[in-house]
Write a structure and sequence with these properties.
Helix content: 55-70%
Number of helices: 4
CATH superfamily of the domain at 225-355: Glucose Permease (Domain IIA)
Order of helices and strands: HHHEEEEEEEEEEEEH
Mean pLDDT: 78
Strand content: 15-25%
Structural class: alpha+beta
Shape: rod-shaped
CATH architecture of the domain at 225-355: Distorted Sandwich
CATH topology of the domain at 225-355: Glucose Permease (Domain IIA)
Low-confidence stretches: 4-17
Largest sheet: 7 strands, antiparallel
Length: about 350
């Protein structure tokens, strides 16, 4: 009989130890997931900043593309003007070439009109000088005609080169900018795809954490006391909004924040920070599901926005006992515990009472 009792006691101890180890493993897994979630959120924040920086670069490139298109319009107008001018020059060149050609034909077909023959045909000194002057004028006119012809041809060639050069310059700039814009947009698309994957991973991690939290809560409620410390949310230490004046996240105006906000997944257990008696358990306007505990030393702790309340008004609670499950009821932007300390009915900074 003693042996049977001993075996039974051993089985109970082993079973209890196994359960404790299992619960500890769940808590360790939850902590590991929370760390992964934190890394994930940090990475998302980093990617968001990179996307914002890329957006600025894209805007700058698009502005340059717009400026380039304006330059193209201006250059097209300039090219059109140069083209018209070139056409006019062609007409002028053809006209001068025709005029010069006719003069040469006349000179070649009628040798009596040659410069030398004109001079030698002079009948007097006065006639000689007149003829020399006339020949000189004709020669000068031909020289000017040839110079004008050559200048026009040179200008036409330069216009052609300028037009081709500007066209190549504009096209090169346009291609470069469009390539840069495509590269930036491709990079942005990749970052957005990565951010989407991180968001999906974030959702999965939050679901896993929430499920583990529910399991731990059920186990903790069976155990009763899960913490010997005075911190209201065991295992979660981050404060998203401290005590003091702030811009209200919902109303957008500066208001006194009468407690601290501790973000945590829905269902996360919150515990009594000290021994005491529950003096209020119910819904309180913007606080949503609210719990207030009068502690033995006179201070009052308040737990707001809970998804559910584990204890009722009049219940005696111990330090570290689960009293609520965190939620987002009342005026809340997401699951968190709003925690207050009140002394003689007035709120005060809770930090000195829970560290």
């Amino acid at each position: 009989m003693k042996k049977a009792i001993s075996l039974l006691a051993s089985a109970i101890i082993v079973g209890g130890s196994t359960q404790i180890y299992a619960e500890e493993e769940k808590k360790e897994t939850k902590e590991s997931l929370e760390k992964k979630l934190e890394v994930n959120q940090d990475e998302q924040e980093k990617i968001t900043k990179e996307i914002e920086a890329l957006d600025l670069d894209i805007q700058e490139i698009q502005k340059k593309i717009e400026d380039t298109n304006n330059q193209i319009v201006s250059l097209d107008s300039e090219i059109e003007s140069l083209t018209r001018k070139s056409e006019d020059l062609k007409i002028e060149i053809e006209k001068n070439e025709e005029l010069l050609g006719e003069r040469i034909k006349v000179m070649e077909s009628n040798s009596s009109l040659g410069y030398l023959e004109v001079i030698l045909s002079s009948e007097s000194i006065s006639d000689l000088f007149d003829n020399i002057y006339m020949v000189k004028q004709v020669v000068e006119q031909d020289r000017e005609l040839l110079k004008t012809l050559n200048d026009n041809k040179s200008e036409l060639e330069n216009n052609k080169k300028t037009v081709e050069s500007k066209k190549k310059e504009v096209e090169s700039l346009r291609v470069s900018l469009e390539n840069n814009n495509k590269t930036l947009n491709d990079n942005k698309a990749k970052l957005e795809e990565l951010k989407l994957k991180l968001e999906q991973e974030e959702n999965e991690l939050e679901k896993e954490i929430e499920e583990l939290t529910k399991q731990i809560v059920l186990s903790d409620e069976q155990i009763g006391v899960i913490s010997s410390g005075s911190w209201p949310v065991p295992g979660i230490s981050r404060i998203s909004s401290p005590y003091g004046y702030r811009i209200h996240p919902i109303f957008g105006v500066q208001k006194m924040h009468t407690g601290i906000d501790i973000p945590a997944p829905t269902g996360t257990p919150a515990v009594a920070i000290d021994d005491g008696v529950v003096i209020f358990a119910g819904v309180q306007r913007g606080y949503g599901n609210t719990l207030m505990i009068q502690h033995d030393d006179g201070k009052v702790s308040l737990y707001a926005h809970n998804s559910s309340l584990v204890v009722s008004k009049g219940d005696r609670v111990q330090k570290g006992q689960v009293v609520t499950r965190i939620g987002s009821t009342g005026n809340s932007t997401g699951p968190h515990l709003h925690f207050e300390i009140r002394i003689n009915g007035k709120h005060t900074n809770p930090m000195p009472y829970i560290k």
